[in-house]
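Changelog-adjacent note: as of this version, every example in the card shows the full chain rather than a window. The one below runs 221 residues end to end.
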Amino acid sequence: MQQLIPLILRLLRSKKGAGGLLATLVAVVLVLVGGEGLLEKEKTVKRTETYAQTKTQSAKPTTLSIKPNSKIKCVVVRVYDGDTFKCRTKDGQELKVRLIGVDTPESSKNLKAYRDAERSGMDVEKIVELGKKAKEFTKKLLPKGTEVILETDVQPFDKYGRVLAYVWLPDGRMLNEVLVREGYATVYTIPPNVKYVERLREAQRYAIEHNKGLWAEGLKK
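Full-length structure tokens:
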């Protein structure tokens, strides 16, 4: 009751004549029969509807319909690792992209870095050192603002929701292949995405034979 006294006073000041008196009496009656709760409920509903309308108007789609064996133009936003980066499509959606068929060393001491150390027999510190070099090599090829083309294979996404893609650079080269051929990534094939597997294997043979990139610094498969 006390909470509605200011409301009643405002009604008295703002309304004139019988209409104002009637509005005041209605407000008092509502309070006496529990109308305060109804009024508050009505306000809550209106606030909820307004909030929902605002969210609907301002929200942007968070997922993109990406089909197998398709190509999408995307502008580089950020490089996370030697084989992972973020880019933005022409409609403003940001995608986290994982290169298909290749693997670069981890650039930080995460769980995968320790697994790779155990598997390869290398020190985790060495793996991280090589991973940072691979990341820097990728950053040189993918400066922020570069427009690339993402080409998907049979499976467009991995279990983490990242887009799996072969990435075509502005000069026509495939980033996946360049990383392997220059010795900054190893071939890492997971079926059914095997469209360019032989091309990547050939690139790796070249890198090993010519002691390219990280192979010259102790990189192990």
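Structural remarks: Helices lie at 5-14, 17-32, 35-58, 111-120, 124-141, 175-181, 197-209.
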